[in-house]
Amino acid sequence: MSLTTKVILKTLLGISDSSLDDVIDLLILQADSMIKGYLHREIEEKVYTEYYSGTGDHVLQLNQTPVQSITSVHEDRNGYYGEGEDAFPTSSALVAGTDFVLRKDDATNTEVCKSGILYRIGKVWHRPYSRLSGQLASSPGLGMGNIKVVYTAGWAAVPADIQFAANKLVTSMLQSREMAGCLTSESIEDYSYTLSGAEDESRMLDSIKGSLARYKKVVI
């Protein structure tokens, strides 16, 4: 699913023929890539299977948000990102509401969990300890992919303000193509590309940051 569609764009632009269909398709892909790169996240709802290493505390931060549901959680000290022998067997499955719970900070139909936080109930997410030769006490080791989470995250329908930004970006790129020819790159803060011969377009493209700001993932 793209952040916008050719039908929507042609309606907004008042285009009734198919002469620009291929160009619009290409620009939609470019706009998708640019916006997702700027936000550091995926948008469309999909199922993720991910491996994590135990933190040694009650909190596990999932990579994708908003989290809509948790399909399964397994904890296997010898799981090794699914590469261990008989990794994550049925017996390693944890039970929702007994062993873990998803933080429902916005329990609506569109964004159940904005934070992506998964809590371990009654104990911590296992992080092994090790003691090297010569050490008197053990020290925290590495979980090395000892947790497996299958979950659904993203939006079933693209949020209106993201779609607005995508429409505006594609429209700007299309107008720049008509005015200055070739599209090569442009920039929005740390994610960049430029428009050949149309530097003034950068100001138009910068205007979509206001629509995207609340969705941007903070990368540490």
Characterization of the model:
- By secondary structure, this protein is of the alpha+beta class.
- Helices cover 26% and strands 22% of the residues.
- It has helices spanning 6-13, 21-39, 160-180, 201-206, 209-212; strands spanning 46-52, 59-61, 67-75, 100-102, 117-120, 129-130, 139-140, 147-153, 183-188, 191-195.
- It has a three-stranded antiparallel sheet with strand order 1-8-3, with no helix packed on it. It has a three-stranded antiparallel sheet with strand order 2-5-4, with no helix packed on it. Strands 6-7 form a two-stranded antiparallel sheet.
- Helix 2 (21-39) crosses helix 3 (160-180).
Task: Set down the secondary structure blueprint.
Elements: H1 6-13, H2 21-39, E1 46-52, E2 59-61, E3 67-75, E4 100-102, E5 117-120, E6 129-130, E7 139-140, E8 147-153, H3 160-180, E9 183-188, E10 191-195, H4 201-206, H5 209-212
Antiparallel strand pairs: 1-8, 2-5, 3-8, 4-5, 6-7, 9-10
Oligomeric assembly: single chain
Succession of helices and strands: HHEEEEEEEEHEEHH
Q: Per the principal axes of the C-alpha atoms, what is the gross shape?
A: elongated
Number of strands: 10
Strand content: 15-25%
Question: Strand pairing plus helix content: what structural class?
Answer: alpha+beta
Are there runs of 5+ residues with pLDDT below 50, and where? Answer: none
On the 0 to 100 scale, the average pLDDT is 84
Task: Please tally the helical runs, counting DSSP H or I stretches of 4 or more residues.
Answer: 5
What does the main sheet amount to? Answer: 3 strands, antiparallel
Provide the gyration radius in Å: 23 Å
- The strand line-up of the biggest sheet is 1-8-3
What is the terminal separation in angstroms? 28 Å
